[in-house]
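Thread: quick sanity check before group meeting

JM: Hey all, I'm pulling together slides for Thursday and realized we never actually wrote out the predicted structure for the chain we discussed last week. Dropping the sequence here so it's in one place. If anyone has concerns about the input, flag it before I start.
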Amino acid sequence: MKKFILALTTFLALSGTLHAAGGGVAWDKAPGNTSDHASLQNGARLFVNYCLNCHSAAYMRYNRLQDIGFTTEQIKDNLLFTTDKVGETMKSAIDPKQAKEWFGANPPDLTVIARSRAGHGGTGADYLYTFLRTFYPDETKATGWNNLAFPSVGMPHVLWELQGQRRPLVEIRKEHGHDVEIFKGWQQVTPGTMSPLQYDQAVGDLVNFLQWMGEPSQNTRVRVGVWVMLFLLVFTLIAWRLNAAYWKDVK
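JM (edit): ok, ran it. Output follows.
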């Protein structure tokens, strides 16, 4: 039993060491608010301009963007790039075969990416918020970029002009006889068109849109759910008093 516990402890320690050495970082909390239409609209613009070139959202129709405040005219004039009909789904124009040759795999559909990426580190929105803010140049990779949240990712940093180029600052420590990289922060190499605060806000808006897109009716579901719970509470009170009145004369 002692040998088993010792082996299990060693395995967990080495697993944590290997994960840290691989460049994994703790996920930052995404500043999401799916009822903020201004944030969702900015996120939709960023998604169409920077993500839809390679990634599809094949289960989301353009006209559903009316739910976050866009008019049909605004959708047609500013957001339709791959189709002429607002009733069509948000499909990418990239050829899957070419995408596989360029990136090693076909870029995944992003309709429910915020829901599918949840894990022990936080929500899917937390992961995406961290992922989109932890790219750094890496000449050893085919795309020229690497990522702390997803080491050796095949995706390039499509938002690099907005963020600029940064490199991670790490400290090497010895733990359990192994070298462990401890992330200490970032050093700005070249500036972007946005300040760090502006970039974080833009990524927050993009992630907010991705989170909303995974379940567009979530705000309605929550609102209806509150009324249902209030109804059940009132009905329970009435049923309790009715039960007491019915049985009061029964010995």
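AS: nice. Residues 14-216 form a domain with the Cytochrome Bc1 Complex; Chain D, domain 2 fold (CATH 1.10.760.10). Confidence is low (pLDDT under 50) at residues 1-23.
JM: adding both to the slides.
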